[in-house]
Design goal:
Oligomer: heterodimer
Shape of chain B: globular
Number of domains of chain A: 3
Number of domains of chain B: 2
CATH architecture of the largest domain in chain B: Orthogonal Bundle
Shape of chain A: globular
CATH superfamily of the largest domain in chain A: Aldehyde oxidase/xanthine dehydrogenase, molybdopterin binding domain
Radius of gyration of chain B: 15 Å
Radius of gyration of chain A: 28 Å
Largest sheet of chain B: 5 strands, mixed
Strand content of chain A: 15-25%
Structural class of chain A: alpha+beta
Largest sheet of chain A: 7 strands, mixed
Strand order of the largest sheet of chain B: 2-1-5-3-4
CATH topology of the largest domain in chain A: Aldehyde Oxidoreductase, domain 4
Strand content of chain B: 5-15%
Number of helices of chain B: 6
CATH class of the largest domain in chain B: Mainly Alpha
């Protein structure tokens, strides 16, 4: 219900303030959460100085969510942004809104924060109405000052009405919210609240958190993970090998091995110098054999979606495009390796870390320590951008083990090789796709068969202490399988079939959700097939896509990006150049779980060296109501640059023993010299529900890059990243044929 | 051993071979320089040593004895002394430009980005885009903020050249 209707219908709500209640501020944080989500007080406090604190259960991961959620609350409460703040995520303080993943902050968190703020506002108006002796519907609010007549004598501030006392109001979810047409703060480019501290060196990243009396710890593992199912088994540890390092000592539980020292450099040196013999692990396929191994392995199969009859659809079609495409393992590789601090005592634990989900991490630590959840307090400190399930849970588990074993508070900073080498990678993929069009250029049949494994659910530290390796629930299906939106879901296709072939993660590398999970691989395969159909039917690739879509929101982003890129119609690969540097442009569409993404790429291919560079990438996202278009532009920009990095550079290398990509030398990413110009397009739809915006144009951008390569060279790349050696091989293959 | 950081003298407790980064973080409790790779590959630990961008994660603290170290926190004062300003501004023009361009996402790489661009602009007041890309190429960002960093450097350059900042 929006607010105007509510006032007209005269909704009733009982507000019971108990003035003898203790100050809210004093109660918070004293006992284990989650606090009762059905109470407004859990979400919001009004202070005597007429400011507000909003308690939000989402992590600031560098995307601006903390500012955007405050914009929502300020809008509903009619407060100025300077009057509102939030607090650190803390299992004793903040509500449990689930983890900060799947681009959920605004998608899931926004409505909760908005409704709580609306509920609080309503309660405040009831109080003001009584105090000012004015009917509620005649009251107006500006910057937390409630006025009856406009005369300052007839006004009262939120702070005067509540002033640090609890609301004692149930969160019914029925309070009317402001109509979007009255928005002043939501939908504007309010600057991020964390930027000034971040550029001046005042921001406390996790890596700066210290505790009195703490030791510095490091984990000791083989450099580079082995087959997930096998873990890493210790044959022997030579503790004497670090005897010369002052204060350094070994701590061990099963195969979980670490060192602690008072001085950080001594801990680092001890971890490097400790002599450990590890068991020879079972053989992995290695990069060279990976996709063949995946394609021929025994799999669990399931049909994601099937409609019409693909066999019939293909049999009568005028044009068919089909190919097999391969995607690599890729790393989260947060720019600062994960870090955590813990103080584990006999009957309680305090853990500070960069988890995307404080409550989820508390549960996993409870299991590991054998300590009830209510004895564990987890606090969130922002680290560097994580883009999904990097080693933040693992570092939290490792630090509690180190602290428990050492009997002191410990700070654990993963080294670069720990983070790169023991990441939960975005898994590799084999995609077999075929698509067909009729003589009129309408897509009539589409089939996608995907091979991949799911995510892990036992972190390395727990596994090394003896916990068995497990799969994340739902492995091989849903978000861990073939994506029904990115794989043909935007087109009107009468006959369509998507099939998953799930591999056992225990025989491969550890995996987890990496920003837009698997979508780059899906779109690379799928949108190249669609593009090929456009080519076969002699159509412009943008026009061909338009022709096969009716969903207005897909059309909206497609048109928006084409317009931004000043797309002019022509058939792809129609002007192949003999010059050494060939240029091409491509277009693509795709998304993750929600929202709509489209992209255009303009690239250059050096046919002599095989080097491919994106010169300009355009990305458009329709994420419904965009709370802060500036942040979404920033997210689109980041997605485009990261996609270029993943399409041209990124590939986790491993041999039969284990991972060999251990740093920025062995796992290169895009640098300034090859950074494209980027154009971000936000398709604002204030009347629609907010959906994710942190990962929804990466698939489209990956596809646009691949299609631009075809436009430049007339060759379809079947595997990414498009490294010089792969490009040269593909180009010479064409010549040979 | 004594070192000089942000015009402040500091007596070092750590062993002489300890990388400067750990002295700055753990002894001086500075929150500008930060650990990224420990291998001089990424630039998150960068500081200025006598005005030259230096990777503190691989530079033994003994190597900066008698030299002047400037961290992110010290850039406004360093800028003021270079420009002979009576008073240090609250932020170096590059820091302000990063805010104005809303260039930051997670911000972890911005220590190195800002230190390196301050060094660049101290030598080349009006760099071309190509000069910016070359100078900054040893600094990595995982969030993909390069385009706005380049814009911010150009904005700071214009401000410094125009005498606005």
């Amino acid at each position: 219900m929006i607010r105007r209707e509510f006032l007209k219908t005269g909704g009733a709500l009982v507000v019971g303030f108990n003035l003898r209640d203790k100050l809210v501020a004093q109660e918070r944080g004293t006992k284990a959460g989650p606090p009762d989500a059905r109470q407004v007080d859990t979400w919001l406090a009004i202070h005597a100085d007429n400011t507000a604190t909003v308690y939000i259960g989402f992590a600031e991961l560098g995307q601006g969510a903390s500012t955007a959620l405050l914009q929502i609350a300020a809008e509903e409460l009619d407060l100025d942004m300077s009057q509102i703040k939030t607090v650190r995520l803390d299992t004793n303080v903040t509500p449990n809104q689930g983890g900060t993943y799947s681009s959920a902050s605004i998608n899931r968190g926004g409505p909760q924060v908005r409704t709580a703020a609306a509920e609080a506002r309503l309660a405040l108006l009831k109080l003001a109405s009584a105090k000012l002796n004015t009917p509620q519907e005649q009251l107006t609010v500006s910057k937390g000052v409630v006025s009856g007549t406009g005369n300052p004598k007839d006004s009262v501030t939120y702070g005067e009405l509540v002033g640090d006392r609890p609301f004692n109001v149930a969160f019914t979810g029925t309070a009317p919210v402001k109509p979007t047409t009255e928005y002043k703060i939501v939908g504007t480019k309010f600057p991020r609240n964390d930027t000034p501290a971040k550029v001046s060196g005042q921001y406390t990243y996790m890596q700066y958190v210290r505790m009195p009396g703490m030791l510095h710890g490091r984990v000791v593992r083989p450099r580079g993970q082995r087959m997930y199912g096998a873990g890493a088994k210790i044959v022997s540890v030579d503790e004497a090998s670090i005897r010369a390092i002052p204060g350094a000592r070994v701590v061990r539980k099963g195969d979980f091995l670490g060192v602690v020292a008072e001085d950080e450099w001594n801990a680092i040196r001890a971890a490097q110098q400790l002599k450990v013999v590890w068991e020879t692990p079972p053989a992995l396929p290695g990069n060279a054999g990976l996709h063949e191994h995946m394609r021929t392995a025994k799999t669990e199969e399931n049909i994601v979606i099937e409609r019409g009859n693909v066999t019939t659809g293909f049999s009568g079609a005028a044009h068919t495009a089909s190919h097999t495409c391969l995607g690599p393992y890729q790393a989260h590789a947060p720019f600062g390796p994960n870090c955590a601090v813990a103080d584990v005592k006999a009957d309680s634990a305090l853990v500070m870390c960069s988890t995307q989900d404080v409550y989820g991490t508390r549960t996993s630590l409870s299991r590991l320590l054998g300590m009830p959840v209510e004895k564990i307090r987890v606090q969130y400190y922002e680290g560097s951008g994580t883009y999904g399930h990097s080693c933040y849970d693992d570092v939290a588990q490792a630090v509690v083990l180190l602290s428990q074993l050492a009997g002191k508070p410990v700070r654990l900073q993963f080294m670069r090789w720990d983070e790169h080498g023991w990441d939960n990678y975005g898994p590799g993929h084999v995609g077999e796709v075929r698509a067909a069009a009729d003589a009129n250029g309408k897509i009539v049949a589409y089939e996608y068969q995907g091979w991949q494994h799911g995510w892990i659910n036992t972190e390395t530290s727990a596994q090394l202490t003896g916990a068995p390796p497990t799969e994340w629930p739902g492995a091989g299906t849903g978000v861990q399988g073939v994506n029904r939106l990115t794989c043909g879901g935007m087109y009107d296709i009468p006959n369509l079939k998507l099939v998953n072939h799930k591999l056992p993660v225990t025989s491969y590398l550890k995996a987890g959700w990496l920003r837009s999970p698997l979508d780059l691989s899906f779109a690379f395969a799928s949108e190249q097939a669609i593009d090929q159909l456009a080519y076969l039917t002699g159509a412009d690739p943008y026009e061909f896509r338009q022709r096969n879509m009716t969903d207005t929101r897909w059309l909206g982003v497609l048109n928006a990006v084409a317009q931004a890129a000043k797309w002019t119609p022509r058939k792809a690969a129609a002007n192949l150049s003999k010059a050494n540097i060939a240029t091409g442009r491509g277009i693509g569409v795709g998304t993750h779980l929600t929202s709509y993404g489209a992209a255009v790429a303009e690239i250059e291919v050096d046919k002599g060296t095989g080097r491919v560079v994106a010169k300009h990438l355009y990305g458009a996202i329709d994420a419904g109501q965009v709370v802060n278009p500036g942040f979404v532009e920033s997210q689109i920009m980041g997605q485009l640059v990261q996609t270029a990095s993943r399409m041209f550079k990124e590939e986790v290398k491993f041999d039969q023993t284990g991972v060999t990509s251990l740093d920025w030398g062995s796992y290169p990413i895009l640098r300034f010299d090859e950074c494209p110009e980027v154009t971000a397009v936000v398709v604002q739809r204030l009347d629609q529900k907010s959906t994710g915006a942190g990962e929804e144009c990466m698939a489209a951008a990956a596809a646009a890059i691949a299609n631009a390569f075809f436009d430049a060279t007339g060759v379809r790349m079947k595997e990414f990243p498009l490294t010089p050696s792969r490009v040269l091989a593909a180009l010479s293959g064409r010549k040979a044929a | 051993m004594q070192i000089r950081v942000n015009e402040r003298s500091w007596t070092v407790n750590a062993a002489p071979d300890t990388p400067l980064l750990y002295v700055l973080m753990n002894e001086m409790q500075l929150q500008g320089p930060r650990f990224g790779c420990g291998l001089a590959q990424c630039g998150s630990c960068s500081v200025l040593v006598n005005g030259v961008e230096t990777r503190s994660c691989v530079t033994a603290v003994s190597k900066v004895e008698g030299k002047s170290v400037t961290t992110l926190e010290g850039l406004p004062a360093w800028y003021a002394s270079q420009k002979k300003l009576a008073k240090a501004p609250a932020l170096h023009p590059v820091q302000q430009a990063m805010i104005d361009e809303q260039a930051v996402q997670c911000g972890y790489c911005f220590n190195g980005m800002i230190v390196k661009s301050a060094e660049l602009l101290s030598k080349t007041l009006r760099p071309t885009e190509a000069q910016i890309r070359t100078a900054m190429n040893g600094h990595l960002c995982r969030c993909g903020t390069y385009p706005r960093i380049m814009k911010a450097i150009q904005r700071a350059s214009a401000a410094m050249a125009g005498g606005v900042a």
